[in-house]
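Translate sequence into structure tokens.
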Amino acid sequence: MGSVETVIDEECHAVFRRDGFASLPRLADDTELEWLRGVYDRLFSEHADFTTGDYFDIAARQDSDAPARLPQIVRPEKFAPELVESEHFKRCRAIAAQLLDIPEDELDFYGHAILKPPNYGAETPWHQDEGYMDPRWRRPGLSIWTPLDEATVDSGCLHYLPGGHLGPVLPHRHIDDDDRIRGLVTDAVDPAAGVPCPLAPGEAVVHDVRTPHYAGPNRTDQTRRAYVLVFMGAAEEVADPEPRPWLDKP
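Result follows.
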């Protein structure tokens, strides 16, 4: 793979600032992809346990007996610290530092391993990542989303609302209006305005924490594995935080 410096140019910066998301060149070559897939599959084989708090189905109640439709492992680096030592991670961190204009050593981060099973993997409804965040604090941040399998419209690639990051945090609610489901959805988005972003394995897309986005269900016979890295700057206290009642505990 080429140096990080050649990956991000001013055009990418401009697109990211304007639209709130930007496609990136391929960030993992074939060798890295095979390694990432091996780590990813081992994680889901060994740590798919609802009782740990690190594994959950974002689209359903955790007490459901049905097969998980949108399972994910949060902070997979907790179980596989080698992920943080990988060239892929270092490459993503350098890109995040450039786009956020924050030194690499000042960035906080965590990972997500998100799985969409073939044929029945659920949609990820329209939402903003910032909708999950405590409104008492504001943090600059972004996500770099790398599919380990082909991500098409049919398999559940991401869709974005261009420029949506320039507006407010939209009203959200829990999926199915059930606060026992962790996933959030906003109805304040016109789905027809969404722009799909299909990706080949190892390519990537980056989006701001406030950019509204969506990923459709997996209607294909192929699993759609995605590895996401979230990078954030220091938190700043908000003097007059807006209400986000969907975050209130019952």
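Note: The first helix runs from residue 10 to 19.
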